[in-house]
Each structure stands twice: as C-alpha cells, then as structure tokens.
Design brief:
The chain is 24% helix and 24% strand. With 102 residues, it is an alpha+beta fold. It has one domain. The two termini are 27 Å apart. The mean pLDDT is 82. InterPro entries: Puta_zinc/iron-chelating_dom. It holds the Pfam family CxxCxxCC. It comes from Geobacter hydrogenophilus. This is Zinc/iron-chelating domain-containing protein.
C-alpha cells in the first residue's frame, strides 16, 4: 500500500573534492547540508581550529599527532535549517567539497 503523504523518491548524491575552493553558494542551497551530516569529522589546520574555537565550536578535537578535527557526526553544529551559519569562515575542505545529483 502506497501512502501518498510520504515521498518515496530518493535523490542520489555524489560528493566531489575539488582542487580549489568553490565559493559559489548555489550548490549548497540545493542540497540542504547533506555533506554536513554525511561524515564523522572534518580535518582542520591549526588556523581553522583556532578560528572555529573563536566562533564557539564545541565539538573540536585537538591532536598532538595528526590533524585537528571538527566532529560533525550526526550533523555539524554550525548547520541550522540546512544552511551553514559560518559559510564565510568554513574550513578549506568544506570550501572544496561539493555535492552533485543524478
């Protein structure tokens, strides 16, 4: 039995990590923050770690022997209503990652 109020269609998304940052917010408006919920963490440089700490990040992981991390498992703390609230200050890997759909 098909329930008409439930949308059973799925959108297939593909992630691409670009060589250079893509500061075009149009793709981000389309996906609703799918990438911000799809990974356990984001690697950060020391400068990014410090910037996010100054912005109030509470899910940072400091490492003496590897990359510092922003834990985004179950959704990035800066994702609100499908939008990045720190878009201008987001980490490099977030700037280079884009989603495409089929």
């Amino acid at each position: 039995m098909r329930m008409p109020w439930i949308d059973h269609t799925r959108v297939k998304r593909h992630g691409l990590l670009l060589e250079q940052p893509a500061d075009d917010p149009a793709p981000c408006r389309k996906c609703g923050g799918a990438c911000c919920r799809a990974f356990p963490s984001v690697s950060l440089s020391w400068e990014e770690y410090e910037r996010l700490r100054a912005l109030g990040a509470s899910r940072l992981h400091f490492s003496l022997a590897g990359h510092h991390l922003l834990i985004i498992e179950n959704g990035c703390e800066f994702l609100v209503a499908g939008r990045c609230t720190i878009y201008a200050d987001r980490p490099d890997v977030c700037r280079r990652f884009i989603c495409t759909t089929d």
